[in-house]
Amino acid sequence: MRRSPKETADSARRISRRGLILGGLQMSLASVLGFRMHHLQVDQADEFRLLAEENRIRFDLLPPARGRIFDRNGVVVADNEPTYRITMKREDAGDVADVIGRLSQLIELDENDLNRAFAEMERTPPFFPVTIAERVSWEDISRVAVNAPALPGITTEVGLSRLYPHGDLFAHVAGYVGPVSERDLSRYEDPPAVLKIPRFQVGKVGVESKHEEMLRGEAGTKQVEVNAVGRVMRELGRREGTSGSDIQLTIDTELQDYVQARLGEESASVVVIDLTKGDILACASAPSYDPNLFVRGISHTAFDALNQNDHRPLASKTVQDAYPPGSTFKMVTALAALDAGLIGPDETVYCSGSYEVGSRAFRCWKRSGHGHINLEGSLKHSCDVYYYDLALKVGIERIADMARRMGLGEAPPLPMSAVTSGLVPDKAWKERERGANWVIGDSVNAAIGQGFVLASPVQLAVMTARVATGRSVSPRLVRSIDGIETPHMGGEDLGLNPNHLKMVQGGMYAVSNDRRGTAYRTRIIADGMRLAGKTGTAQVVSRITSEADPWEDRDHALFVNFAPYDNPRIAVSVVVEHGVGGSKTAAPIGRDVTLQALYNGDPPLDAYPSKDRSQIKAQQERLARERQQRRDQSASRA
What is residue 228's predicted lDDT score, i.e. its pLDDT? Predict the structure, then answer.
C-alpha cells in the first residue's frame, strides 16, 4: 500500500526529532565524560600521584629499648645488647620454600628456628614479618644483603636482645625474657601492637614479668618505600619509640654473689633484709641457672637437665617454696603466750623428754629431757616440751593471730613469680579445707612449727625482722623506678609489749652466745657485731633421720637471726633442704652471711672464734676464687 506524500513528510519530521534528541543525549554524555576525565587527569593529578606513591609505602613498628635493671649500687643486672636477625614477609616472598632454599645456600639455618618460623607464618597475617634466624653474624648479614635481589621478602635487621651479665646470680629475682607466645597474647583482650613485632621479648618470670609493662616501653614507627617484591628502597620517615623504665633493685650484687657462692652445691636459700627500710639485700636460691639460655632459646636437653635435677634449680625457693618452720616458729608461740599474759619469764615447765596429750606422747628432741626450764632456756635449748605445754595454755587461735602479726600466712608484696602465702592453720581452716575438727594434737604440733604450719624463707626473714624491731617490717625489692624511690617498708609499731620482745630477743641471744645454746659453735665474737638467732629442724618424714638416710628423707635445716643484737640492722633466714640439723648446717651459713653483710665484705678473722679461723681463712680464699671466676665470666658477657 502506497503512502501518501503527507504521511511521508510527517514520518520524516518525527525521525529528525528523534535523531536530534538522541544526538543531544550523546553529546551530553560525551561532555560529562570529558569533564570527568579532565577533573581526574588534571585537577586531581597530584592527589592520585600521592595515592600511587602510598601504594609503595609501608609502615613498620620499631621495637622500643627495654628498660634496664640495676642493683642498689648501680651495677647492671639486666642489659640490652645489639643483635642481627633475618625476617621474612610471606606476601612479599611469593614461593616461601624457594626463597628459604636460596637463603640456606648463603647461611646456615637452624632446623628448629625454621620449624618455629613456619608455624608462626601459619598463624599470622601474610604481611607480618616472621623471624627466620636470630643472632646472626655480621658476615652472614653481609652475604644476605649482597644477594638481596634474589631473596624477595627477606629483610636483615638489627635489634636489641636481653643480656644478663651476671649469669645465674639474679635468675630467681630478675627472671628472664623470651619471645611473645600465644599464652602471652591471651592475657590481653586487645594485645598492644608492639607484641606483634617478630620475636619481641617480654618478661616470663621474676621482676621482668611482674614489671613487664614498665620495662617494655612503647613502639615507634618508620615509613619505608618498597619495590614490587617488598624490598626496602629508602626510609621516608621515622618516629622513635619510648624506652622502658629503668628499675633499681634493693639487692647488693656483692652480697648476693657471696651468698650464692657460700651455698655452694646445697639445695638451699638465704634472705637478708635491712631492718631500716625493709630492703632485701640478698635473695638467693641454690642451685641456680643461667637465664641467658632462655633468652637465646634453650635446647630440650638443657631444659630437661634443669627440670629433672632433684635440687630444683628452676625453683625460686626463697618465695616459692614453703617449709615447716620447725623450732624457728617457737618465738611466735612464746610471744602469743606473753601477749595473752599466760606466762612470765621465770615460770618453768618440767621437761622429762616427752609430753602426754590424751593417749599420745609427744617427744622432745632431747630424749632424756631438759628438766625444769624457763622461757629463755626453752629457746636456748630449743625444748619442745615447753612449747607443747604452751600450746594447751594459749590455744591455736592466739598462736595463729600472732603468726599473722609476724608476717606469716600472707604472701609478701614482692614482684617475683609464684610467691607463696605459706600457711597459718586454725580451726576454721581445717574445717574448711580438710572437713575435720581441730584437735589438741594439731595445736601441739603447730606450737613447734610442725604439722600444718608452712612458711617461705622470705617470710621467716620478715618474722625475724619484726621480732628484732617490734615493727611491721615488710620486704622491699624495688628501690626506685626511673630514679623515683618507692615507699620504704620499715613498718609501723606492732603494738607488742617491749618487755615481751626483750624476753624473746634475750632467748635468741642465748642460742648463739651461751655455751649451752644450740648455735654457740657458730657465734660471732666481734664487739658490737654479736647476733641473736634460732635454729630449727623440720621433719620431712615421720621418723628421726640422719645423714645415713637417703638425701630426700632427711630433715630440713633452718636458722634465723638478727644482728647486731644491741642495734639490729639486718635479719637473715637460711633454709637448707635435707640439711639434717639447723645448728650444724644452716647456722654456719647464717653466721657467715651476717658477717659479710655487716662488714660489707670479707670480715676480719678475729670476728670468728679462734678455733674456726684457719678453716674460715681457707673458706674465704676458696670463695674469693669462685667469685673472681664469676666476675671474669660476667666481663666476657658484657
Answer: 61
Q: Which of 161-170, 186-195, 215-224 has the highest mean pLDDT?
A: 161-170
Q: Which of 463, 396, 399, 398 is nearest to 430 (CA)?
A: 396
Rounded CA-CA distance 523/587 in Å is 9
- The residues, ordered by sequence, that sit 6+ positions from 19 with a Cβ below 8 Å of its Cβ are none
Q: How far apart are CA 588 and CA 524, in angstroms?
A: 10
Helix (H, G, I), strand (E, B) or coil at 59: strand
Work out whether the CA dihedral 362, 365, 370, 375 comes out positive or negative: negative
Spatial separation of the C-alpha atoms in residues 211 and 228, rounded to whole Å: 42
Residue type, 276: T
Catalytic residues: 327
Residue 542: how many CB atoms within 10 A of its CB? 5
Q: The whole model's pTM is what?
A: 0.86
Q: What are phi and psi of 493, to 5 degrees?
A: -60, 135
Instruction: Indicate the pairing of strand 247-249 with strand 69-70.
Output: parallel
* Chain centroid, CA 576 distance in Å: 21
Q: Which amino acid is at 375?
A: L
351 φ/ψ angles, rounded to the nearest 5 degrees = -105, 115
Give yes or no for a contact between 551 and 578, defined as CB atoms under 8 angstroms apart.
yes
Residue labelled with grid coordinates 640439711 = 579
pLDDT tens digits, one per residue of 292-333: 999 977 888 999 999 999 999 999 999 999 999 999 999 999
